Amino acid sequence: MIKYLLRENLLTADPDDCMAQETDARTYTQDDIAEEMMKRGSSLTRADIASYQKLEAEVYAAIIADGGHINTPLISTSFSISGVFTNQTDTFDKSRHTVKLNVNAGTALREAAAKAKVQKVEGTSTDPYITSVVDKVTSDNTAVKVGSVMEITGARLKFDPTDSEQGVFAVTASGEVRCATVIENKPALLLVLLASDVPAGDFSVEVRTKIIGSSGKAVKTMKKGSFNKTLTAVQG
Asked: How far apart are the first and last CA of the chain?
């Protein structure tokens, strides 16, 4: 069940229109997925599953590093190259061009998404709300270089940087990394460095804060808001 609530649409000039935001969704790690496999009566042991997951990730990474495409029931991938080439004799330059990995849902995931049911949740959210994430250096809104500045815009984003549980987190398949270097910390704008230990590949951005409203009032309950688009972390 996909639970959603309606909140103000900050992307339009209409003061009354709303947009849906997913809420209360559980995130499954590799360990959680292994647990789900065990529940389904898999003959593999937990160690077998962990070993397979590790091997699969290594093979996928090797294929991508070699410039290959992946096409499975779960995902399909392709590459694109951003940046301007001055003329027909110009060649790829890492200082001007970036290789971007494009990842799309495969047939099995698309079919599963079409079957998902939705449920509207009533109430007004005071959670952080992210409208955009951009690599401030390259202006790319799909890929962010590790160590580069992420510009995060939205509402109710401000957090207490002295609290290690609050802040901007890069959530990956292997875990999460807190982006500790904060340049700007305002309700509608955050500037943070994408932490150097974020692994290359897909990640999502999540803001966690105990501050609500423009008054800066702190509450006991952690408020969380995730960007609704998956980004790609790119090593220098």
From this structure: 39
